[in-house]
Amino acid sequence: MNFELTEEQQLIGQSAREFGKEFLDPIAVDLDHSGKFPKEIIEQLASYDFLGLLVPESQGGAGAGFVAYIQVVEALSRSCPAVASILNNHAMATHAIATWGSDAQKAEHVAALAKGSRLGAVAVYENGPTPGIGPDALVASRQGDKYVLNGTKAFVRNAGVADVYVVFATLDSSEKKEQTAFLVDARAGGLTVGPLLDTMGLKGCPVAHLLFSNVSVPASALLGAENGGSAIARTLLAVSSVAEAAQTVAIGKAAVRHAAEYAQQRVQFGKPIAVLQAIQTLLAEVATDSQLAWLGVLRAAQLIENGEPFEADAAMVKAFLARFGSKMLIDCCQVEGGFGFSEFMPLPRLFRDIAGTTLLDAPADYPDKIIADSIA
Amino acid sequence: MPKFLVLYKWTLDEQDIKVKSDDLSLDASRAKGKISDFDRNAIEEAAAIVEKQGGSVEALSYGTPTVKQSLKDVLSRGVDKAYWIGDASAETADAAVTAKVLAAAIRKIGPYDFILTGEGSSDQFNQQTAPRLAALLGLPCLSFVHKLEVDGAKASVARKLADCTELATVTGPAVISVLSDINKPRIPGLKQVLGAAKKPSEEIALGSLGLAAEDLQPKASRRSVKGFVMTRKNVIYKDAPADAVAKLVSSLAGEGLI
């Protein structure tokens, strides 16, 4: 088994790290305060081809593969996890169309999304206990050669800035409440973006509900088959959870690096606190957790790239980081004491961001169920 | 249209090097390689000129066999073709040996209108490659260049010297070493990284350069390298604020710092 990255994967990661230092480090704090969508940064990402990284060359992308994508998400997240979240949601929408779209859909959307002239978003969640249930459920009705959508999609990232949404709805004829995926243009009549949610972290990545009131889309907007959306959503969420795990690892690594530098500089009783065993234990545990999780992320990413079953591996990484992600930040804050709790240090921002990357795209019991099913 | 050759060094990334606290020796066991910082400026300058007005950019590096790891990196930064000389002799080569090897290689693969390199390397910063190479090749050398304009075979440069800026022109072939403020090296985009694999690279065997054994014998050898750690004096003035400030100012003045 080989955990070595190819030269291309290493260089792509290096480019992303340089991009992070050059463009993201200077804006990360301001973005956390303003929460304003960083349009110019996303345009910069596009100019370096990061938006089309997963898209095959034949469809206008870089075709660099999922392992390279994970390098990029991790590298950008060390500097600014919110920007990586914008990228990931866009990449998942693009990936969905490139994978399950018709030839006409690919021709219309994929090259533009890869180039960054259009931005994508995935709208999968609803307010009810499960999609298709409850008064807010997004329901699609087939009416001749079109579908009419009514209802709400909740917590949509890139809401309001995306040009095209990959939307999951329940056909009113679906007895089992299976989902059906549609491509909905942001300018569609009857589609309203709700007020932006003031989120705890990942500020700058806009989150809002999408309100559908008699939104009419042509039959050609169907992505995949009727009632085939649940499988697409499951796969997309699993793929996305690996990217979010990479974000979580990156935040943990950024935090432990900062805490380690602080421990070298902070002198107590005549020596740096880095030599104290209690501090070393805290730092060593965080470094261990993040490194082991990173190996798991790489493994899941390689499975995705190889087209092999990856859902259980992805769920394991997600579950591991759901438990240890926030702990990494607590431990790092503890090393930095009162300073670590202060907003002029980066740890509080990273703490809020890691809550987003561990909680989103998978409810707490979701990975456990997948893991349990895989071993039963 | 100008034909450029850029010389670059594959160095250890200093960010990965740890200074051991007991004897200040360096632990580079986990250090990754990188293209020396100033050489990135040289690559960028040549690539930017060629992108604007045509021509070609080739690159050449002499290093230990690990220099091969640099090829895709350098080719992703606007270079059309990369040459490399990977030989264990580079581990102990001094500036004279390095210049002799590079000069012999350039005689083999040249000629070029302009040979660019960084003012000094990230690791040793000897600043000797450009002048020694120019002397060996019998070419003019312009160092400390922070502005470069090329018009055909003629180059106009601004040299940043200690107390003045010197403007000069030179007709190629010439050797030019650049400072870091001449430009901002690009971050290669994904398509440049992936496209690098399709560009040519060529190994030049050291033995094919016709150098004598004494040419490869360094006259200067490095005995040791130690990290620099700034130690604090930890002087604390516990007097009343006005007196403490006065003593601090007096102390700084006494050491010639203010």
Would you mind describing this structure in some detail?
The complex is a heterodimer of chains A (376) and B (258). Chain A is 54% helix and 15% strand. Chain A is of the alpha+beta class and 376 residues long. Chain A folds into 3 domains: 7-118, Orthogonal Bundle (Butyryl-Coa Dehydrogenase, subunit A, domain 1), CATH 1.10.540; 121-227, Butyryl-CoA Dehydrogenase, subunit A, domain 2; 230-375, Butyryl-CoA Dehydrogenase, subunit A, domain 3 (Up-down Bundle), CATH 1.20.140. In chain A, a hairpin with a 2-residue loop joins strand 9 and strand 10. In chain A, helix 7 (229-265) packs parallel to helix 9. The longest helix of chain A has 37 residues, at 229-265. Chain A is globular and about 80 Å long. The model of chain A has no long low-confidence stretch (mean pLDDT 92). Chain B is globular and about 70 Å long. Chain B is built from 6 helices and 13 strands. Chain B is α/β, with parallel strands linked by helices and 258 residues long. Helix content of chain B is 26%, strand content 26%. In chain B, a hairpin with a 6-residue loop joins strand 3 (18-19) and strand 4 (26-27). In chain B, helix 3 crosses helix 4. The mean pLDDT of chain B is 93. Chain B has 2 domains: 3-216, Rossmann fold (3-Layer(aba) Sandwich), CATH 3.40.50; 230-258. In chain B, the strands form 3 sheets. A 9-stranded mixed sheet of chain B has the order 11-10-9-12-8-1-6-7-13, sandwiched between helices. Chain B has helices spanning 37-53, 71-75, 95-109, 129-137, 190-196, 241-254, and strands spanning 3-7, 10-12, 18-19, 26-27, 33-35, 56-63, 81-86, 114-118, 141-151, 154-160, 165-171, 174-178, 201-203. The interface between A and B is medium-sized, with 19 and 13 residues.
